[in-house]
Amino acid sequence: MPSQYRKPRALTPGDTVAVISPSWGGPSEFPHIFEAGLNVLRGWGLRIKEYPSTRLPAAELARQPALRAHDVNSAFADHTVAAIWASIGGDDSVLLLPHLNRQVIAANPKILIGFSDNTTLLVYAHLWGGMVTFHGPSVMAGIAQLSKFPARHRTHIHDMLFAHKSSCSYKSYTHYSNGYRDWSDPSYGAELKPLQFSRGWQFLQGNGVHQGEVFGGCIEVLEWLKGSPYWPTPDFWQGKILFLETSEEKPSVIDVTRWLRNYGIQNIFTKVAGVLIGRARDYSLSEQIALDVAVLNVIRDEFGATTIPIVTNVDIGHTDPQFIVPLGISMQIDCHEQRISLTEPWLS
């Protein structure tokens, strides 16, 4: 079944991209990393449009959520802008939500991409604006470092935003990085931390093929939305594939356990068609395994969801490379083939 959400058009060289800072003022703190990310976008033939808050000093930016929200509204309203890209994440974008213009955003579907604290904007534009949004690398975290990634990842990022494709089969990467070299040392540039071997996706449970519209984001940020008007209604979850990923703050296994229980008591695990857990940033192998045990214990044992697929250690979120995952697009989990795919176009 085609997505019920409106799909933004694909990018083409010459398009203008709005680069905004809806959370932390990273561009003012580390301009060399920001410029490295912008140069990647320019290399794709894109024009860059910045807004009053884009490079505002971090302390000043933090005091002005209304200004940040105004820039979000302005970027959606600007018909010369084809996509809106977050510079980086942070921890307070929930403060923007009361200032966002639902009518303007809903009337102007376009690519909105970011992750981490930008989960709030992705969820807002998805639920309240009725559009497909894109959980993926920000300008400073993932795009600035793009040349350091395998060629197939560079192709993945470009094709998810520029190509007219009807499907996408995700494939796990053999190695990953837990973030970046110290940005306070300009001599490092946009460098990754040393690569580590990945144990790949872990299919903890499930048989056959399961399909549903994908929804999710950073698990900590989603916690800040629970109980608010911006949290999905109970009937929203039916048939969804839920993905969750942890931030660079490295929440403990017991933290994740408690948050998952909150989904359980909302009966979400009895409604969704599958659960994906992103590869946890800075987790040791033993911690990754302990997380797998905890996820299975909560979803299967405590809340009785014994048939839905559960896949962990997926390349989503705060480790690199990370996939772009479009919220609202039909995703298929094939447990037998151990394959995760998008099964419809995500761009118009």
- Work out the count of structural domains: 2
Q: If strands are numbered along the chain, what order do they take across the biggest sheet?
A: 6-16-15-10-11-12-13-9
Report the top-level CATH class of the largest domain. Alpha Beta
Radius of gyration over all CA atoms, rounded: 19 Å
- Which percent range fits the helix content? 25-40%
Please tally the helical runs, counting DSSP H or I stretches of 4 or more residues.
Answer: 10
Instruction: Could you tell me the CATH topology label of the largest domain.
Output: Glucose Oxidase, domain 1
Largest sheet: 8 strands, mixed
Question: What separation lies between the terminal Cα atoms?
Answer: 16 Å
Mean pLDDT: 97
Order of helices and strands: EHHEHHEHEHEHEEEEEHEHEHEEEE
- The structural class is alpha/beta
Salient structural properties:
single chain; about 350 residues; alpha/beta; Rossmann fold; Glucose Oxidase, domain 1; 2 domains; 8-stranded mixed beta sheet; 6-stranded mixed beta sheet; 10 helices; 16 strands
SSE inventory with pairings:
Layout: E1 16-20, H1 26-29, H2 31-43, E2 47-50, H3 58-62, H4 65-77, E3 81-86, H5 102-107, E4 111-114, H6 119-127, E5 133-135, H7 151-162, E6 168-170, E7 175-176, E8 196-197, E9 202-205, E10 209-218, H8 219-225, E11 241-245, H9 253-265, E12 274-278, H10 285-302, E13 310-314, E14 325-327, E15 330-334, E16 339-342
Parallel strand pairs: 1-2, 1-3, 3-4, 4-5, 10-11, 11-12, 12-13
Antiparallel strand pairs: 5-14, 6-16, 7-8, 9-13, 10-15, 15-16
